[in-house]
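In this section we turn from sequence analysis to structure. A common task in structural bioinformatics is to predict how a protein folds when a small molecule is present, because the ligand can shape the pocket around it. The inputs are simple: the amino acid sequence and a SMILES string for the ligand, here pyridoxal-5'-phosphate. Study the lines below before reading on.
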Amino acid sequence: MRPLDEYIVPWVRESEPYSARHMDFASEHPHLVRMMSNENLLPPSQKVVEAILEAARNANLYPDSGYTLRQRLTELAGLSADQVVLGNGSTDIINSVIHTFIAPGDEAIISVPTFPMYETRVRMAGGRAVLIPMTPDFYWDINAILHAITPKTKLIFICSPNNPTGNQISAADLQRVLAQGVPTFFDEAYYELEEKVVSRAGWIKDYLHLMVNRTFSKAFGLAGLRIGYLLCETGLANYLNRVKIPWNVNLLALSAALAALDDTEDQRMKRQNILAGREYIYREINRIPGFRALPSEGNFVLIDASALGKSSTEIMQAMITRGIFIRPMSGHNMPPGFIRITVGTPEQNRLFIETFKAYAAEVLGSLAGSTR
Ligand SMILES: *Cc1c(COP(=O)(O)O)cnc(C)c1O
């Protein structure tokens, strides 16, 4: 008998399962402030919770195709309902898009650092992830991206505002990429939180190979319900609907998303919380000599804490001991000493800043002591 391993497709055999260890750790330690996963730390509004409870009464029934929600979403974007594809979180959409374009051996171009799921899911489809490092000041290296295109390139991933760098790609640079005609996945997971909100959904009319990805996980704060959506041209949506699993978005999520779209007052409050919080963290970190926070258009702030002379994992561990769970960025195509902080409530942000300052003073104090 052949060993079971030999039956497994090679790219699955050679990969590792996604590690949810940080999530499990956070669940086991509920006293920790969750600043590690870019969740919205404000809970759903009363209206959203009521919509979920109401939908729960029908949980014996299969969900429909989300027609009402798709209609609402596309009206908001100036498109039609057949130009939206719903996903069980936008990670599900990323997966469907990859399985629509990538056959084993095909290439996807990914500017890094960015959301790691693009690379993982491309690999899981047997594809080759062609990673293009951003420039040293963390901007898209457009020339290198264009240079990397080969006949095997089936997809290009651009995330803007980019997780974890927080910045946006310029219209002109995105146009240079789109001019190549290669299917382009443009991730707008954080667009509702931009200082000046700009979407590229309107460009779908001119670029039929442009896909605009969005989620209810961040600005709307529904990460636990798993719902995201893709905006694209009708013919392309038709292909994607063949690949995606039917009923992939559940009844509770569909109702919650509709209620969240209706609750504009809650949206405004949540957005304000993020904008004020990230400005505060940015300002306070940049006040500490030797440390640098990058300007962010998302619900997170990237910090260069290399002045501590510690690995980002060591920094994470030290912060966990002090009650705050942050994300180390080493192993994410970033230089050592970079950490990413999710914006929380004003009190949580203040707690983070005070804790981080005290920790930095401790480390740098002892460093000064040891060199004397
Ligand atoms: C958080 C995030 C997502 C998606 O999350 P879902 O919860 O799966 O919708 C997608 N893209 C980026 C860049 C993100 O940061």
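The radius of gyration is 21 Å. As an exercise, try to locate the residues that line the pyridoxal-5'-phosphate site and compare them with your own expectations.
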